[in-house]
Amino acid sequence: MRLFIAINFNKETKERILKVQKNLVELYSKGSPTKIENIHLTLIFLGEVEEKRLPTIKNIMDSLKFNNLNLVFDKIGKFKRRNGDIYWLGLEENKELLSLQNSLYEKLLRESFKLESKPFSPHITLARKVVLPSKVKPILNSKFSTNINYISLMESKIINRKVSYKEIYRKNN
To answer: Which residue among 16, 32, 39, 110 is buried most deeply as judged by most CB within 10 Å?
Structure first.
């Protein structure tokens, strides 16, 4: 099973993210926008995990204590790629979010999960393989926020050559 732990968003927040995405799409000459049903914020990417390890992941998630997280979206950025950049929506620094992610990371490491060692960079992918005219730089017109009160264990599958995500477990705060 290909798994990750993420923050999913309510309909209102997804609609606001889609407005930002739509403004980006209008600027580019080439790109592939993230489908609404796939919009999320990854906390931990687990990769391929044997099904027998699911109880351990669920127990770790259940052991977490966190308050409602108020996430503030405040910028658009990109990861440079040769075949087109990945554009993302970024967040104001949030100590509670960083603490939650770090606690999750440490507990999973203690249980011998193989995790990426790169620093956590909270973002929502808006589009991939984006090519913009040279002088165009997308900006976020105004900040917006959302409250989060749960995290999700997600399974990633490829169905009919398209990536599909399914929540298989939820931990409320």
So the answer is: 39
